[in-house]
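Deliverable D2.4 — example input (structure tokens):
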């Protein structure tokens, strides 16, 4: 008589620790013993670590289901230590269990034999519901604990981002509470990434993300995992607020991976690596150069205004066309170029060289005047002052924490002086912990004070004239690639009509260009 072919599925929720002490090895040994007693043949084993039973988004689980639904299936029974190993969601349990049964594969728990028939099915469903409720309750408590841990300023155990390292701040029983501190070597890499993107390597001017990645890899820099940099990682670093001292938790739903509303995020203050001004300049540049705004060929190509020119008649982008074997270039309504007519009635195109000259003239002679620059900086200055409330609120909270820590330290030293406590090792460690906390909070206060102080101040007419002249020199004397980047840093659209041309840009963007980032 041939032995019945069976497979096993082994799962734990984390790779480091088994749930309730039930390790992969324990499951494997128990199932093998059960198979030997039954005289079956174990033909395949599916092992999954670090996967929650509350979802079916488990790679090994899905591969196993695919095998079980083959015709004919390579095994007749699927063995698990308990039904909760298979799924902790009653709907998933029933859905996949029925699909396998329909294909001739029976799901068997080696520790929960409820028998066959309606009574056994009912008991299995009740157990599945119980597992689901227990899992949801456990997840709720774990999430609440982690949220409170983050609110108290502790790091929640995941790998520290590049530029930081997690260190044990204190022990609570057997649990180590960790916090982030700056890793000097990694922090230098982070500062270099921001510098390359904004200012360049001192030779080629500001680099894009791809060229920044190329520079890092060519010069032997490594990410936190010791590997070469990728475009996605550098882009994530440039957008991550942790580098200005704001580490957010509870950003995504752990099951659906969707982003939660921002009001549900929890912000933890950490030592900053990048100044707020530098970070905001990078965000402005990223937004202006996003693929949604410009195709890569338009951002990286030579033409000064490609991708910025809009038809004033119908609002469609104007296409850059060439004639005479590329020696002559002009812009024409994209809809007209494609269909032969413009819905808004625009009939003429415009010579590229003529448009470049008109735009540069407008920027140099009309926009970059002392009066306009003074007005723009004044308006941006007022807007930024009104937006400093968050930093001020954070600063007040941190000062309150510092006062509380100082008072606590003073009480402990007073108790020591009065003989109430003895200078034991526990006492010394407690004092060291409080002093370390005071130092950390004092550093955060300094960072927040710099943020409050580094606002864009209004300038005099004379200063505005000097700033305008600096940018005029840059625009007139720069190489084409750098000139293009300067123009695109504050020009968002150029609307071309039959009678007039309008240049559209954000005042805040122009302010960043003129002042070099809003520094005092």
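Example output (designed residues):
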């Amino acid at each position: 008589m041939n032995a019945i072919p069976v497979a096993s599925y082994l799962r734990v929720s984390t790779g480091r620790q088994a749930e309730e002490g039930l390790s992969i090895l324990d499951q494997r040994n128990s199932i093998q013993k059960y198979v030997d007693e039954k005289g079956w043949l174990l033909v395949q084993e599916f092992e999954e670590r670090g996967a929650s039973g509350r979802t079916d988004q488990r790679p090994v689980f899905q591969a196993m289901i695919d095998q079980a639904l083959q015709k004919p299936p390579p095994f007749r029974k699927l063995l698990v230590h308990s039904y909760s190993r298979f799924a902790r969601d009653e709907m998933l349990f029933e859905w996949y269990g029925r699909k396998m049964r329909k294909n001739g594969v029976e799901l068997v728990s080696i520790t929960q034999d409820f028998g066959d028939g309606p009574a056994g099915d009912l008991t299995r469903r009740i157990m599945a519901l119980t597992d689901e409720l227990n899992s949801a309750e456990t997840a709720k408590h774990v999430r609440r604990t982690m949220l409170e841990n983050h609110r108290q300023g502790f790091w929640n155990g995941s790998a520290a981002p590049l530029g930081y390292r997690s260190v044990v701040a204190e022990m609570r029983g057997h649990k180590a509470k960790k916090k982030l501190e700056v890793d000097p070597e990694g922090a230098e890499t982070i500062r270099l990434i921001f510098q390359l993107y904004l200012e360049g390597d001192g030779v080629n001017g500001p680099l894009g993300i791809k060229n920044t990645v190329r520079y890092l890899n060519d010069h032997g820099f490594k990410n936190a995992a010791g590997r070469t940099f990728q475009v996605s990682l550098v882009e994530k670093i440039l957008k991550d607020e942790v580098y200005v001292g704001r580490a957010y938790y509870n950003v995504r739903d752990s099951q659906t991976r969707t982003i939660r509303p921002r009001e549900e995020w929890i912000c933890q203050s950490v030592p900053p690596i990048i100044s707020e001004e530098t970070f905001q300049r990078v965000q402005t540049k990223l937004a202006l150069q996003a693929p949604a705004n410009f195709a890569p060929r338009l951002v990286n190509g030579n033409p000064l205004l490609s991708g910025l020119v809009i038809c004033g008649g119908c609002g469609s982008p104007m296409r850059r066309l060439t004639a005479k074997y590329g020696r002559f270039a002009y812009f024409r309504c994209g809809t007209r170029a494609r269909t032969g007519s413009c819905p808004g009635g625009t009939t003429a195109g415009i010579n590229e060289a003529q448009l470049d000259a008109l735009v540069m003239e407008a920027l140099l002679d009309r926009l970059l005047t002392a009066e306009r620059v003074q007005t723009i900086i004044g308006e941006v200055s007022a807007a930024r002052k009104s937006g400093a409330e968050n930093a001020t609120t954070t600063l007040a909270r941190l000062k309150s924490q510092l006062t509380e820590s100082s008072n606590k330290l003073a009480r402990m030293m007073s108790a020591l002086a009065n003989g109430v406590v003895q200078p034991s090792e526990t006492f010394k460690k407690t004092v060291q912990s409080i002093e370390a906390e005071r130092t950390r909070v004092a550093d955060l206060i300094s960072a927040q004070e710099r943020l409050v102080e580094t606002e864009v101040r209004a300038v005099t007419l004379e200063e505005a004239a000097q700033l305008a002249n600096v940018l005029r020199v840059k625009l007139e004397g720069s190489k084409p690639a750098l000139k293009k980047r300067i123009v695109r840093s504050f020009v968002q659209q150029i609307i071309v009509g039959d009678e007039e041309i309008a240049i559209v840009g954000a005042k805040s963007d122009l302010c960043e260009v003129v002042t070099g980032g809003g520094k005092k």
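Residues 15-20, 296-300, 507-520 have pLDDT under 50 and may be disordered.
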